[in-house]
Amino acid sequence: MSVTVRDSAPDARADTATHGERILEVDDLTMHFPVRKGLLRRVVGHVRAVDGVSFHIGHGETLGLVGESGCGKSTIGRLIMRLYRPTTGAIRYRGRDIASLEGDELNAVRREMQIVFQDPFASLNPRFRVGEIVGEAYRVHTGDRAWREHVADLLAKVGLQPTHMNRYPHEFSGGQRQRICIARALAMSPRLVVADEPVSALDVSIQAQVINLLDSLKAELGFSFLFIAHDLSVVEHIADRIAVMYLGKMVELASDRDLYQDPLHPYTEALIAAVPKPEAGARRRKRTVLRGDVPSPLAPPPGCRFHTRCPKAMPECSKVEPVMREAKPRHWVACHLFPGEAPGD
Amino acid sequence: MTDDALLSVEGLRTHFFTPEGVVRAVDGVDFRIRRGRTLGVLGESGSGKSVTALSVMRLIPSPPGRIVAGRIELEGRDLLALGDDAIRAIRGRDISMIFQEPMTSLNPVYTVGDQIAEVFMIHRGQSREQALEGAADMLAQVGIPSPRGRLNDYPHQFSGGMRQRVMIAMAIACQSKLLIADEPTTALDVTIQAQILDLIVSLQEELGMAVMLITHDLGVIAETSDDVVVMYAGEVVERLPIDQLFESPRHPYTQGLLRSIPRLGEKFVHGKRALTEIPGMVPNLIRLPPGCPFAPRCALAFDRCRAERPPLFAVGADHEAKCWLAETDAATP
Ligand SMILES: Nc1ncnc2c1ncn2[C@@H]1O[C@H](COP(=O)(O)OP(=O)(O)OP(=O)(O)O)[C@@H](O)[C@H]1O
Ligand SMILES: Nc1ncnc2c1ncn2[C@@H]1O[C@H](COP(=O)(O)OP(=O)(O)OP(=O)(O)O)[C@@H](O)[C@H]1O
Ligand SMILES: [Mg+2]
Ligand SMILES: [Mg+2]
């Protein structure tokens, strides 16, 4: 069945003409959360959750974002959605900096971007019926009297029944709830969708269903996509390009193939080597490639933040912070081993 | 069948009697763990993995839970027949466990050093001083930097991964015959996970410990286990040596799981393909269908599957599957 969800599909070509090839450009983005202590709630430091990150997403492109827990992935997703206001930096959405937009202007932009969160249990209001959850924003915004038909179309699109409209979230399994969240995200025909660990909370046997669904919806509707996950196998499956983060910094950015076949940053290499391999003969493989813990983002190490765990660290790594450079065509890395082309185009 | 089994579990059924009905959390579980070997327990959320482990430890909260049938034998001793004191002596000395939630199993009001030291004091009768020395050693073994300085820290001062390693240190400090590790690395990042799995495998080789490793991660199973049991809806649906798991799985659920996961690099060899889905959803344990619990999601199901629960059929050396399709190959007893 083919239903038209969007009445004004974002025409990638028209967009490209007016705003270039990119739907989103993030420039030197920083988010520092204050840490407060004591009775007076004095600020005793800052968590440098995102610290000078730049990247872009092309029209219709899927960018994958990976990295260890706490490295700042979700913070980036929330900054793009402008759920936070960045400490510094620019977020250019279709050519316009939205980093400090407010009020109606911000709401208008937010309608074009939607986010799907990790926990499908926490992100659905238990008191509303599925139809209201999915269709409320659409109904309010468009005033469309036939909004229920729109919701029915959306539910069919995500593999649910139109009759599910009248049920409550608790009547659904985890995988079904994530489908409801996806339907809600698609209701406003977004141009950009952020999915933050959309399958991590789901059973293994259900994950493939949701990954396939997101992948085929994206192909059909043509939205641009930021896919955040800690599982590199999942990200590689779905992404066109992959960005790797470590402790608030982006350390490598390349096409899916280049990142897998020719990882440059020692952290990316370690990440790939550490993925447990579901195949015969994997037993007794030496897996440890890194030692030590991820340092605290409250006091990140000087120089390269990875140097405390890096097997290839050199003296300068603890002194000079490496910047992102284009070491190979369209393959960016922040590591002193790869001098490459200096940034600043 | 008794060879050198350290632990043998037969016909285990553990049910929870709730106001909504009887939850048949474990409903027909059989397996053996050999000395010095690792048994991987695979299965999705709610399939009864933790309840199986807690049954072995005799830690099922009662009410509402009860072991309603089965035998659990450790070196030939029937654990279900033991009194409370006897089972307490076995916990820690013979069987130790790493629980699924590290935060809930560390005591927030005692220092990390004291909690590990207590294990040495109880199980090896050491003095507090000796025990703290041992605790620092253990922390070093699980890769905590400057272990001596961290002995006086409280659990909340450790990161999630470090707490998990403290749990592992405590479990290993017992030097028990069997270590039950319930999702020991699920909350951890892959690079830390790799460290912990290596640690468990090397300690096991050193101490000759048997390990029961519970996970839903096929990769983790592949890298640690000798034998595998696959659970679905409270039952063991397949039991097989690790290499068979990847080469000739027989239960359609096991086959489906293997096909549904994306594998690193696969896309560049075969081109991008949609993942193979297992249709439908995880069943409700209170209202299970009469036949095979997997039948409603199974592409190969036929009438008998929907009417009658299959038993475990032997389909090869050390390989059994609870599926009517396996009946034809099964050696008739
Ligand atoms: N609202 C907040 N206030 C203070 N600190 C925060 C806040 N949100 C995130 N942080 C901190 O910022 C850092 C990055 O967090 P973030 O949630 O972005 O990580 P992540 O990469 O998404 O991790 P995970 O994989 O665990 O989801 C962490 O140290 C976190 O504790
Ligand atoms: N105290 C309890 N009361 C009622 N039901 C329970 C109780 N403990 C467990 N159950 C039920 O038993 C079933 C099996 O739970 P169990 O914790 O063994 O699953 P699991 O395989 O370990 O899953 P996970 O991978 O999520 O840890 C679940 O349906 C659970 O809801
Ligand atoms: Mg996150
Ligand atoms: Mg469990």
Q: What's the number of extended β-strand segments of chain B?
A: 12
The profile of the biggest β sheet of chain A is: 8 strands, mixed
Structural class call of chain B reads: alpha/beta
CATH superfamily membership of the largest domain in chain B: P-loop containing nucleotide triphosphate hydrolases
What string gives the helices and strands of chain B in order? Answer: EEEHEEHEHHHHHEHEHEEHHHHEE
Number of domains of chain B: 2
Low-confidence stretches of chain B: none
Q: Report the CATH topology name of the largest domain in chain B.
A: Rossmann fold
CATH architecture of the largest domain in chain B: 3-Layer(aba) Sandwich
Can you write the helix and strand succession of chain A as a string? Answer: HEEEHEEHEHHHEHEHEEHHEE
Structure overview:
Chain A is built from 10 helices and 12 strands. Chain A is α/β, with parallel strands linked by helices and 345 residues long. In chain A, the strands form 2 sheets. Chain A has an 8-stranded mixed beta sheet with strand order 6-7-8-3-9-10-12-11, with helices on both faces. In chain A, helix 4 packs parallel to helix 6 and helix 5 crosses helix 6. The N terminus of chain A is likely disordered. Chain B folds into 2 domains: 246 residues, 3-Layer(aba) Sandwich (Rossmann fold), CATH 3.40.50; 66 residues, no CATH class. Chain B contains 13 helices and 12 strands. In chain B, helix 4 runs parallel beside helix 7. The longest helix of chain B is centred in the middle third of the chain and has 18 residues. The radius of gyration of chain B is 21 Å and the shape is globular. At the A-B interface, helix 7, helix 8, helix 9 and helix 10 of A face helix 7, helix 8, helix 9, helix 10 and helix 11 of B. One adenosine-5'-triphosphate binds next to strand 2 and helix 2 of chain A.
